[in-house]
Amino acid sequence: MFKTDSETTKIAVPAREKLQSMKRIGGWHAIGPIVIFLAILAVVAILTPAFIGSGGLAVIASSSAPILLLALGQAMVLNVGSIDLSNAAIGLLGAILLALTLGPVAGLSPIIVLLATTAFGAVNGLILAYAQVPSFALTLGTLGIFQAVALVVSGRTTVYVASNGEGVHSLYESGIANVPMTFWMGVLLAVALWVLLRYTRIGRGMTAIGKNESAAIFSAVRTRALKVLAFALSGFAAGLAGIAIIAQAGSASPTGLGSDLLLPAIAAALIGGTSISGGVVNPLTVIFGALTIALVPIATTAVGIEAQAQSLVYGAVIIAVVALTMSRNKSSIVK
């Protein structure tokens, strides 16, 4: 039986509306992160012109380095439709391990730390893929585990780099255009991940999982292996964040620099154009998401908001960005 013209029109109109909605959201993901950063930067420049004129952009970039690295790892996990609540804790544990091992093993220490943090992330992915534990519950549990391990390993105190820290410190003390190499390390990782996602079968498979996992399975995409890879990349990026923390501070503590980066990293990934529901990510725009989050403390101070309210700002930003960018139609259910 053939459909009448009116029936065909009824089907086509919602399809066109959905396509137009996707195009609008896609456009926002592409330019939104840059627009948000420039808008907040303009506010700061107007209210505190001395800060911008005295190397403020370099300060913002340097302080955004750990956030950027964690956000890139988080973005890869979000892209496959999951979330990693443990990657900031993995990064802090990596920083503590680096501070403890630089003395005994010197140049091998960063390699050991990166291997360890990548393995931690991969374990998360293996449990998710093969035990079918939801990523939120899984990584909420491993968040507590890694925090406890960090407390035990550090002896509940600050761990300082005793020796052989010159190479790591140089990542923060040297740079390009007065911006430390820790930030450029994040930029290089963003470029590498962008190439992976755009030009490789592996990257396209990861995005396909986030868009429609059932369709990806029927298309013979190795969904389990790619989920493990996404979490392993998150662990690797967390290890780099740990190195950036040591390069900047020269020490690590369960309650020091890096202990409160989970919310900023998630916010940076979302502001950077990553979809909370998966299938949409651009590591290059995540750079602007991280810069925006690093700019938030300065912007809140400039407009008279107390420093204690910064977490409130991060939370509000996450809600607003998800509300503005999430795709909706009559047949979708938001859970």
Strand content: under 5%
CATH fold node name = ABC transporter involved in vitamin B12 uptake, BtuC
Q: Rg, please?
A: 21 Å
Q: How many helical stretches?
A: 14
How many beta-strand elements?
A: 4
- Summarize the helix and strand pattern as letters: HHHHHHEHEEHHHHEHHH
Average pLDDT works out at: 85
In the sheet with the most strands, the strands line up as 1-4
Helix/strand structural class: mainly alpha
User: Uncertain regions: pLDDT < 50 for 5+ in a row?
Assistant: 6-15, 328-335
General form: globular
Biggest sheet descriptor: 2 strands, antiparallel
CATH architecture: Orthogonal Bundle
Distance between the termini: 37 Å
Write down the oligomeric state: single chain
Whole-number count of domains: 1
Specify the helix fraction band.
over 70%
Which CATH C-level class is it?
Mainly Alpha
